[in-house]
Design the sequence.
């Protein structure tokens, strides 16, 4: 029933309101003493050299892509698991083939070193 | 019940739940400080109130009155939004977590759950996935190299373990046949031979239980997977540039996540609120909540105990563990569970 | 096997899907075997891919024989609840894909060693993309067609970018990926509009519901939007102007054997998908889409022919010539969809695709063979004086170029012949005149290449060595180009058979 979802949004609303209200309310009592050294980005006490928007290692993108692939696999597995008994042995075989293809892919990425450090 | 009654009852439950949760979070901090202190052979907070019980209040007051330094080099909209995202979505999982059976209060027959959607587990998985955004955006918006890298490493860790987390739940779903958390708990009712409870843990999901627990430890960034936080202590991390209340929100989010994990582990693997019922009717309605709270407390205690005991993983060990050990274990678990259930049917 | 869901699947479904299943198994096998192979045994991957194609061809022959045995009794076998229809049309295209992939693999083996990118994934990706193409050709449900499209496209994106250290290859792959992703998105949007209008994802039901819908409101803007967005995706895949922007860059940057594969098999798959959707699903919207097709066809022929006139890079030139050929084929579709439709038009498209497979692959094979360790081999300067360095190859290239231009008695002539015949049958005289005019343009830039080969002095005088596989590929394509030109009847009847028609008829119940 769709009305069951309304409390979730109410919850989010209340959970948003509490910190928002406290932040705004207590702005009145908070001190405000900006100072140059307090406002610099923290870099162990030395002055920062350049902007943070530089380049970083590509391994993060590989992790993200692998996550997407396996998360989509999980998404397919979850409804199958819920209707497991109705789908019977035939469903198990079909999902087994699906998992098999993904396991081939998993072995491939393992051997190719995509999971190193990662 | 009518829509109006339903909304009013829900709002009351929301307020109570939020109050209990936030107080629980605050006192979990106290418990952690005390227990870790005792493990390390020192007292922990003792001065502020008896046994230091008013310490969380003092800390809260400090956070509220502290100067909120917003550095000029940050990207303001995301900088402010990130801790709110982290906290809101960490807390919202509570909306679908049941803590007991149906009760009748003041003539209203209502479940001890804010709302019972029939895809509860899926909602929790989705909400925890969105929570990762809070950390990634915090690292990026802070516009400082350490924050960015810290945020990226934390995000990479969390999404790596999310895969294992999701896969470990598939075995539970095969046994229960429903996403609804109340349904999963109801499928674990009863006992074998009068004494062994029919929890999922004993129905064969012990591997899944441990995979879930370890993946959840990594998802919540707790020892031994707390490199994103240790970076805070060592150098920096995604919440370097944050101060006062926003910093507090990140920590509230972390402890709220711990709560969610503890509740889920109790519901999915340890039978929820099932336990021996005795006494008069009013007691029998309260006892499930007590058994559930006992389990949750046990998990929180486990979290703190491990924190005081184990060293932390190096980052490459962490990633290797998530992808090369937990994922195959979870897949093997689901394959075996599927085979056993199909062949037995 | 027990289980409530098995009531909807039967063994016959899996027989129809057997070509795709076998190719998938072999592709997965190549992925696993490649991990264990030492570098000097990498050619096993090519052999495995070839064996996989052979097994798949055997499966297609098996389905073909089932049709031959059943005679005129059964029109088409459908499977998987009507979403996959492996009918004669699909079988024709299956053969085309398998032949195209086979020749591409023959061309690639030595080429990959020179490029130092001899990985097994190359062959696995080619096989996967053929599986995707088969899903596109046999798909009778827009969901299956889309899945096949994405499978083929993603495998091709990676193949285009396979030369990891070559910047042009990376750039080509990125451009192809971005434009392909956008056009797939627009295509999916159009398909979703079709579903919304008709309430079904099966092409036959879509056609029927659209027919009643168009009778009630003939100028429904939602239907027109659905048509335009769907055709955008389709035209992108076949690289018709104005959606051709990816083609010259992708063709130029990709490894040359993949350029050949793309220009032949991917294009055939795009045409299979286009014909299925236009002639089954969107058929009731004929009065609306024929003017659209006319515009696109003329724009394509004009733009491609004019652009090809000034190209110095052989691969880009052949890319534009590819686009020009698509323009001619679109004319066949116009003839096949006009108010008194002519089946010859569609038959012409199928014949064109068949001859195009061989002649284009042959031309790309010659260019591939020019690649050596230090010279890329795709500029006109590299092919200069080929007659002195490798006379057999130069003559073969001349044959391919003449066939591309449409000179009888070579194969390319029959492609254009049926298209123009159908245009005249349906009364599109101006279009026929324009097309013939552009064919002359084509002759110019093909003969430019021939001029460089025969008349100019060789810039690079080293002789061209051919690996046995490459020689085989050249032999096959050369013999096919000449052979189809001299004995066209068998292939014309094959194209007619694939449309289930004995002689040129009015298109009554096509694909049903």
Sequence:
């Amino acid at each position: 029933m769709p009305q069951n979802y309304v409390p979730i949004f109410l919850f989010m609303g209340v959970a948003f309101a509490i910190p928002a209200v406290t932040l705004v309310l207590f702005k009145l009592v908070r001190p405000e003493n900006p100072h140059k050294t307090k406002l610099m980005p923290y870099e162990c006490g030395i002055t920062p050299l350049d902007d943070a928007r530089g380049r970083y290692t590509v391994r993060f993108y590989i992790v993200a892509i692998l996550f997407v692939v396996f998360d989509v696999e999980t998404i397919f597995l979850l409804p199958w698991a819920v209707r497991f008994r109705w789908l019977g042995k035939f469903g198990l075989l079909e999902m087994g083939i699906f998992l098999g293809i993904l396991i081939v892919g998993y072995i491939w990425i393992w051997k190719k070193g995509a999971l190193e450090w990662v | 019940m009518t829509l109006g009654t339903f909304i009013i009852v829900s709002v009351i439950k929301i307020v109570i739940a939020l109050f209990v949760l936030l107080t629980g979070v605050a006192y979990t901090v106290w418990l952690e400080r005390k227990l870790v202190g005792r493990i390390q052979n020192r007292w922990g907070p003792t001065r502020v109130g008896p046994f230091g019980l008013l310490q969380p209040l003092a800390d809260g007051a400090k956070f509220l009155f502290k100067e909120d330094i917003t550095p000029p080099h940050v990207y303001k909209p995301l900088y402010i939004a990130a801790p709110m995202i982290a906290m809101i979505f960490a807390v919202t999982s509570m909306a679908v977590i049941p803590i007991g059976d149906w009760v009748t209060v003041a003539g209203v027959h209502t479940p001890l759950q804010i709302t019972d959607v029939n895809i509860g587990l899926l909602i929790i998985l989705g909400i925890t996935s969105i929570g990762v955004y809070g950390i990634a955006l915090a690292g990026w918006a802070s516009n400082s190299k350490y924050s960015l890298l810290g945020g990226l490493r934390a995000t990479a860790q969390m999404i790596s373990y999310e895969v294992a987390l999701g896969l470990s739940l598939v075995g539970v779903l095969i046994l229960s046949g429903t996403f609804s958390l109340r349904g999963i708990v109801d499928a674990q009712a009863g006992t074998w031979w009068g004494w062994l409870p029919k929890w999922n843990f004993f129905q064969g999901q012990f591997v899944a239980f441990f995979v879930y627990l370890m993946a959840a430890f990594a998802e919540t960034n707790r020892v031994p997977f707390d490199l994103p936080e240790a970076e805070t202590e060592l150098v920096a991390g995604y919440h370097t540039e944050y101060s006062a209340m926003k910093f507090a929100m990140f920590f509230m989010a972390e402890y709220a996540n711990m709560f969610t994990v503890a509740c889920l582990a109790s519901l999915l693997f340890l039978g929820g609120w099932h336990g021996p019922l005795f006494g008069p009717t009013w007691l029998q309605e309260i006892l499930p909540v007590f058994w559930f709270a006992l389990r949750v407390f046990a998990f929180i205690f486990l979290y703190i105990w491990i924190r005081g005991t184990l060293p932390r993983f190096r980052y490459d060990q962490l990633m290797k563990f998530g992808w090369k050990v937990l994922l195959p274990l979870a897949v093997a678990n689901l394959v075996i569970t599927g085979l056993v259930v199909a062949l037995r049917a | 096997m027990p289980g409530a869901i098995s009531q909807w699947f039967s063994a016959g479904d899996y027989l129809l899907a057997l070509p795709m299943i076998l190719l998938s198994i072999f592709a997965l096998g190549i992925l696993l075997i490649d991990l264990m192979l030492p570098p000097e045994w990498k050619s096993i991957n090519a052999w495995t891919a070839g064996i996989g194609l052979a097994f798949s061809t055997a499966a297609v022959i098996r389905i073909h024989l089932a049709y031959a045995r059943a005679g005129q009794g059964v029109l088409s076998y459908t499977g998987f609840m009507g979403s996959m229809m492996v009918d004669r049309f699909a079988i024709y295209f299956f053969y085309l894909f398998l032949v195209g992939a086979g020749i591409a693999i023959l061309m690639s083996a030595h080429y990959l060693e020179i490029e130092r990118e001899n990985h097994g994934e190359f062959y696995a990706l080619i096989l996967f993309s053929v599986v995707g193409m088969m899903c596109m050709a046999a798909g009778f449900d827009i969901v299956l067609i889309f899945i096949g499209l994405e499978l083929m496209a993603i495998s091709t994106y990676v193949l285009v970018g396979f030369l990891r250290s070559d910047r042009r290859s990376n750039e080509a792959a990125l451009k192809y990926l971005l434009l392909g992703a956008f056009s797939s998105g627009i295509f999916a949007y159009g398909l979703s509009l079709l579903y919304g209008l008709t309430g079904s994802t099966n092409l036959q039901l879509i056609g029927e519901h659209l027919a009643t819908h168009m009778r009630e409101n003939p100028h429904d803007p939602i239907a027109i939007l659905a048509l335009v967005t769907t055709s955008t995706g389709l035209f992108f895949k076949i690289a018709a102007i104005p959606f051709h922007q990816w083609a010259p860059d992708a063709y130029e940057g990709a490894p040359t054997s993949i350029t050949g594969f793309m220009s032949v098999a991917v294009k055939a798959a795009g045409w299979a998908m286009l014909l299925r959707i236009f002639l089954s699903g969107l058929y009731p919207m004929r009065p609306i889409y024929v003017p659209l097709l006319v515009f696109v066809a003329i724009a394509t022929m004009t733009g491609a022919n004019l652009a090809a006139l000034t190209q110095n890079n052989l691969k880009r030139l052949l890319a534009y010539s590819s686009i020009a050929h698509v323009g001619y084929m679109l004319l066949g579709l116009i003839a096949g969809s006009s108010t008194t439709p002519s089946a010859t038009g569609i038959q012409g498209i199928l014949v064109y695709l068949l001859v195009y497979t061989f002649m284009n692959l042959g031309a790309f094979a010659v260019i591939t063979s020019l690649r050596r360790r230090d010279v890329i081999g795709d500029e006109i300067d590299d092919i200069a004086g080929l007659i002195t360095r490798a006379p057999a190859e130069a003559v073969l290239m001349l044959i391919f170029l003449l066939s591309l231009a449409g000179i009888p008695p070579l194969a390319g002539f029959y492609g254009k012949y049926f298209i123009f015949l159908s245009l005249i049958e349906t009364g599109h005289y101006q279009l026929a005149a324009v097309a013939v005019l552009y064919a002359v343009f084509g002759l110019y830039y093909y003969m430019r290449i021939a001029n460089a080969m025969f008349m100019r002095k060789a810039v690079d005088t080293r002789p061209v060595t051919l690996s046995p596989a490459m020689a085989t590929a050249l032999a096959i394509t050369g013999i096919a180009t000449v052979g189809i030109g001299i004995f066209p009847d068998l292939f014309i009847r094959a194209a007619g058979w694939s449309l289930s028609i004995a002689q040129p008829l009015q298109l009554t119940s096509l694909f049903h």
Observations:
- Residues 11-511 of chain C form one domain.
- Chain C has one domain: 11-511.
- The CA atoms of residues 335 and 345 of chain C lie 5 Å apart.
- The beta strands of chain C are 78-79, 84-85.
